Amino acid sequence: MPTKESDDAKVRLGSRFHRLLGATLVSAIGTGMHAAALPLLVLQSTSSPMALSFVVIAAEIPWVLLSLHAGVVVDRLDRRWVMVWADLGRFAVLVALAVLILTAQVNLVWLVLAAFLLGVGQVFFDLAAQSAIPDFVSRDPRSLATANGRIVAAESNGEDFVGPPLGSALFGVWNVLPFAGNALSFVASGLLIFSIRTGAKPKKTSKAPRTSVRSDIVEGIRWLFGNRTLRALATVSCLGNVAATAQFAMLALLAKEVLELPDFGFGLLLTATAAGATVGGLAAAAASKRFGPGTVMLAGKAGVGTAILVLGLVANVWVAAAMMMVTGALMTAEKVVVSTLRQQIVPDELLGRVLSSSRLVVMIGGPVGAGLGGVLANLFAVQVSYVTCGIFLILVTLVFYPVLNNRALASATDKSAR
């Protein structure tokens, strides 16, 4: 029998949130489409691995260069309009790219520039969408966790399930189709966001002179590192990203050399991860309510560590697929819990800046993990990198238990509520 609390949570999500959810899904499909089609377009003109690297770097570097400034924009402006302009900007980039393809004028320079601009749009859209969730649903933990879980599941389905195979399939028919379809997806996303009527109180305005961008950025960073719980969440997420990136960076090598899988089999491992991520996103709210956010996060971190450890110890395809699914589910559930806690603790007027500061800290773990995995695999064997990272994550869980257990998190959220 459903409880009143769960019924209320469903009501609180409402049509405004579901339009945000629909826009996130459509936008994620578009992102997945160009993530698959851009490398294929590069390979039509060159087989250079460095060319592919340039495009990937161009798509990722906006997070490093612009995330802090994007957080200021998200906090200063109407978050709906930030998302709309991000979608319109990406639409314009894709229209220009489609014209270059049709006129046979596209080259590596244009592709790198397009990847960079699309990455810029994604930074602004993702930060605004995550920060806007509390604008559309109640700030009680159940509603926030349910909303975050559905948003994460939509992102996973769009970027990993639907977008890449659709982009690849359309590219095989005609190389301009995925980019044209992608442009339309961003128009649809923008229209859905534009149709939302907030029904919420407007942002507070102050008669005091507007502070500088630099001081706003510093305020967000200070808020992040000045709060013990937020600081711990960012640090543990960064350390988790070290292990996760090492795992995924070496996955192709593990699949080919240890599991002896063809290219298609490697793709199925990624699909298993995406399937797990969908389950984890949808189940996170119920798990958090049943066991507590600290238990979900810490057990998830230890579980991911165990799954990575098993990948390094057991050379079996079915076990590997199961461990990838477990990894996807637990990592996504952790992400939902962290997002929900941050939204509960951080004041609305600071949420974009604290979120962008946290993202920047987490991203530091990516290149460290990729380098660590490569060094260990090169010096010893690819399995050694998995065993090392698995043990590392389990140790991280033990170290952060005193700060991130259920009692500590309840105390932190109670203080913020007061």
From TrEMBL:
Major localization class? membrane
Compartmental location: Cell membrane
Could you list the residue ranges that cross the membrane? 20-43, 49-70, 91-118, 171-194, 232-254, 266-287, 308-331, 360-379, 386-404
Give membrane topology per the record: Multi-pass membrane protein
The Major facilitator superfamily (MFS) profile domain is annotated at 16-408
Query: What InterPro entries does the annotation carry?
Result: MFS_dom (IPR020846), MFS_trans_sf (IPR036259), TM_effector (IPR010290)
Instruction: Quote the Pfam families the UniProt record gives.
Output: MFS_3
Q: Which UniProt keywords apply?
A: Cell membrane, Membrane, Transmembrane, Transmembrane helix, Transport
Q: Gene3D superfamilies of this UniProt entry?
A: MFS general substrate transporter like domains (1.20.1250.20)
Under the heading PANTHER family, the entry gives:
INTEGRAL MEMBRANE EFFLUX PROTEIN-RELATED (PTHR23513), MAJOR FACILITATOR SUPERFAMILY ASSOCIATED DOMAIN-CONTAINING PROTEIN (PTHR23513:SF6)
Q: What is this protein called?
A: Major facilitator superfamily (MFS) profile domain-containing protein
- Organism name: Kutzneria albida DSM 43870
